[in-house]
Structure formats: C-alpha cells, structure tokens
Amino acid sequence: MPAPLPLPTYLYKILPSAPPSPLPARLPLSDLDRTDGYIHLSTSEQVPGTADKFFGKVSELWLLKIKYEVLAAGTDGDGEVHADKKAEVRWEEVGRGCFAHLYGADLGIGNVQSVDKIEKSGSWAKSLSLE
C-alpha cells in the first residue's frame, strides 16, 4: 500500500506505561509487536482513535514521537543505518485505515525525538492534541 500524501512529519508509538529513562538504544517490543513481527505506529490523526480503541481503560499514556524521515531513512534505535539490516517503514491497510509499520529496526534513543506523558480527560480524542 502506498504511503499517504502528503507524508506525515511525525509518527507515534503509543505505550501504556512509561519507557525506561533515559531511553536505551533498543526499547523492548510489546507482545503485539513481537507477535506481528513489526512495530505498530500511528500518524497524529490516527493516535486518538488507536488510543481509544486499544487503551481506552487506562488513564495515562506515553507517546514516542518519531520523525518520519528518520525512520524512512532506515535509522535504527541506536541512531545508525545498518547496511546488513533492511529497516523500513511500510504503509499497510488495516481494517480502519492505512497504518505505518516499522520492520527490521527498533525504537530507541537514536530515532525517538521525544517522549510525552498524556493524561486522559474524558476520551483520548479529547485529551490528545498533536500536530
């Protein structure tokens, strides 16, 4: 599936609990990411719906904010582009839209721009304001 146009500036990884601080070069994969074989990511427009659907019962989330161009370049969690790995972002159709999936790389200090804690006030759609 082709990437959306225009391409997003940022992609987000939603976490139900705080990541280690400081971020390591390789964050542990969620059970879902490990099972599926890729890291699930969302655009700013997709984050509220994804949060409501999969994290509706929690009162706080952590968002990893990642520049799309950094992931598209194949940058791994350690900040390097490894010639022996095929790190790539693939846009794939999932029931309710086209989502970014990161294959062949990890998230970590080298490719995550920021970590933000978000507290829920009503729904996630009302609590999240992303660019």
UniProtKB/TrEMBL annotation:
Short name of one Pfam family: DUF952
SUPFAM superfamilies (UniProt xref): ADP-ribosylation
Coiled-coil residues: none
Source organism of this protein record: Decorospora gaudefroyi
Alphabetized InterPro entries for the sequence: DUF952 (IPR009297)
Gene3D superfamilies, per the entry: Protein of unknown function DUF952
Protein's UniProt name: DUF952-domain-containing protein
